[in-house]
Amino acid sequence: MGGKKILVTGGSRGIGRATVLALAHSGAHVAFTYSSNETAAAEVLSVAAKAPGRVIAVRASVEDYDRTKKVLADVQAEIGDLDGLVLNAGITRDGMLAMMSEENWDDVIATNLKGMFNYVRAAIYGMIRQRAGRVVCVSSVSGGRIGVVGQTSYGATKAAQIGFVKSLSKEVAPYGITVNAVAPGFIETDIWQSIPESKRAGILKSIPQGRLGQPEEVAAAIRFLLSEDASYITGSVLTIDGGLSS
Ligand SMILES: NC(=O)c1ccc[n+]([C@@H]2O[C@H](COP(=O)([O-])OP(=O)(O)OC[C@H]3O[C@@H](n4cnc5c(N)ncnc54)[C@H](OP(=O)(O)O)[C@@H]3O)[C@@H](O)[C@H]2O)c1
Q: I want to staple 24 with a disulfide (CB 3.0 to 4.6 A). Which of 41, 53, 79, 188 is the partner?
């Protein structure tokens, strides 16, 4: 990944954080966005300081298209034209549909789905002009492969992300751009902490490998899909779930 320029949305915590660090340690120059947690973003910058790749952080919510265009322009001025884009920022607002508020539904759609549109829409012309590029979306087995109680909104966005990836991959394949998704199972991040304690043992029992995945295990797959080694892979979904959905 030496010298490659990559933008990761939601890079201050969890899977995004691990991806930023994996890329920077491979020599890539990485810009990451985050929504509000300044302390977490500063921690990533400090850990990444020793990496060979340069890392910069930008506070910006993915829901805002005008802000996204400005972020892309600033990042390109700072690290250069993008070789890769990782659509990672995502939220859950879990709850039974019968009790779900319109606001919670709208929040999940805005961050997970509109946020993905915003970043791809703002970055894809540059990649088309370059006749090269890599787009990786962090979807989920929830919605992407299986249903999960309480995750109608989240699952709907994660299934939609896969549809988006498959269509876009065909639109941009003639320009040397690949578009893929990863579908993680249960990964040990703050999202896991938001799952009620009472449900965690049952979830662990349903995972054939008997453990949660680590953010670094997802980051390794994302880095692979961004690399030259994945040059003939496009429109694919790589499942990383310890056997959960198999
Ligand atoms: N953890 C899992 O088990 C799991 C499984 C499958 C898929 N995934 C997917 O993996 C991705 C990352 O999940 P995670 O567990 O690593 O999440 P996480 O630990 O909660 O981290 C979320 C990251 O996204 C950022 N973010 C949240 N809302 C944002 C917004 N509106 N605009 C910009 N950035 C925003 C956060 O920034 P702040 O720090 O500022 O809040 C943070 O950097 C998500 O798309 C999720 O759906 C996770």
A: 53
